[in-house]
């Protein structure tokens, strides 16, 4: 049973805004789950974009932001660029360990 | 600069064992939580386990618990993943990562090493 759920795919136009969400089947996602977001492009290792709900790393472009949206964690891409086309995974600290979501394929079209 | 370089992957028969290594540099290994994450071909990411910075507490998910062991040699700056009783479903790219918090050494991934388990 999948503990964490994400949208399977989303499409966004260049320059547009898209919000990805991350839900836990057991209830609301909170800051205690330390939501983390990763980006992976084909043939590459993943890279960490957002940690602890909304903290960016030094390499994270300013157009990426993390938040809690209702009972979910969210990753918002504002002013989307063609190079943002990728798979995005969320991760929650859950039950003493970590669980990844199944990923959201973002297409820039 | 933080760098993580995995090695040790390869072809192994079902039921066999393999030990992966991750050479870490640019930070003090014993101060970091270190993780292994894997990805089956064409599939998503799966967390394989963590070794914490509290003297070495380890945590594993159910699919690998009792078969995989994470350890580290702080003097050599190297993380290990000992994989025993391997199954075909263990096939995939294995990545070592630092922790997922906001510490200066966190958020880093290696390039991965490929493990293929044949039946």
Explain what you see.
The complex is a heterodimer of chains A (109) and B (119). Chain A is mainly β and 109 residues long. Chain A contains no helices and eleven strands. Chain A has strands at 4-6, 9-12, 17-24, 36-40, 47-51, 55-56, 64-69, 72-78, 86-94, 97-100, 104-108. In chain A, strands 2, 4, 5, 6, 9, 10 and 11 form a seven-stranded mixed β-sheet that branches. With 119 residues, chain B is mainly β. In chain B, 0% of the residues lie in helices and 47% in strands. In chain B, the strands form two sheets. Chain B has a six-stranded mixed β-sheet with strand order 2-10-9-4-5-6, with no helix packed on it. The radius of gyration of chain B is 13 Å and the shape is globular. Classes of the chains: A mainly beta (109), B mainly beta (119). Chains A and B meet through strand 4, strand 5, strand 9 and strand 10 of A and strand 5 of B.
Structure at a glance:
The complex is a heterodimer of chains A (109) and B (119). Chain A has 109 residues and is mainly beta.
Which characteristics define this entry?
heterodimer; A: 109 residues; mainly beta; seven-stranded mixed β-sheet; four-stranded antiparallel β-sheet; 11 strands; 53% strand; B: 119 residues; six-stranded mixed β-sheet; globular
Largest sheet of chain B: 6 strands, mixed
Radius of gyration of chain B: 13 Å
Strand order of the main beta sheet of chain B, please?
Answer: 2-10-9-4-5-6
Instruction: Calculate the terminal CA-CA distance of chain B, rounded to whole Å.
Output: 40 Å
Spans of at least 5 consecutive residues with low confidence of chain A: none
- Quickly count the helices of chain A: 0
- Helix amount of chain A: under 10%
Strand content of chain A: over 45%
Q: Report the principal-axis shape of chain B.
A: globular
Structural class of chain A: mainly beta
- Please tally the β strands of chain A and state the result: 11
- Helices of chain B, by number, come to 0
Q: Element order, helices and strands of chain B?
A: EEEEEEEEEE
Our measurement of the CA-to-CA distance between the termini of chain A, rounded to an integer number of angstroms, reads: 33 Å
- Cα-based radius of gyration of chain A, to the nearest Å: 13 Å
- Percent of sequence in beta strands of chain B: over 45%
Shape of chain A: globular
| Oligomeric nature of the chains | heterodimer
Largest sheet of chain A: 7 strands, mixed
Largest interface summary: A-B, 23 and 23 residues
Number of strand elements of chain B? 10
């Amino acid at each position: 049973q999948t503990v964490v759920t994400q949208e399977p795919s989303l499409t966004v136009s260049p320059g547009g805004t898209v919000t990805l969400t991350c839900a836990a089947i057991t209830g609301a996602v909170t800051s205690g789950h330390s939501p983390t977001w990763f980006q992976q492009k084909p043939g590459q290792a993943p890279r960490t974009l957002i940690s602890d709900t909304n903290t960016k790393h030094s390499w994270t472009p300013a157009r990426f932001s993390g938040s809690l949206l209702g009972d979910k964690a969210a990753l918002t891409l504002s002013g989307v660029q063609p190079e943002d086309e990728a798979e995005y995974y969320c991760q929650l600290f859950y039950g003493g360990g970590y669980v990844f979501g199944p990923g959201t394929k973002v297409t820039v079209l | 600069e933080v760098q993580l370089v995995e090695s040790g992957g390869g072809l192994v028969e079902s039921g066999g064992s393999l030990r992966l290594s991750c050479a870490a540099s640019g930070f003090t290994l014993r101060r970091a939580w270190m993780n292994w994450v894997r990805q089956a071909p064409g599939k998503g990411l799966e967390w394989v386990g963590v070794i914490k910075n509290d003297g070495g507490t380890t945590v594993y998910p159910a699919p690998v618990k009792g078969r995989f062991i994470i350890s580290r040699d702080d003097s050599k700056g190297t993380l290990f993943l000992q994989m025993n009783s391997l199954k075909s479903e263990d096939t995939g790219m294995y990545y070592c990562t630092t922790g997922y918090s906001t510490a200066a050494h966190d958020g880093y991934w290696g390039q991965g090493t490929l493990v293929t388990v044949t039946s």
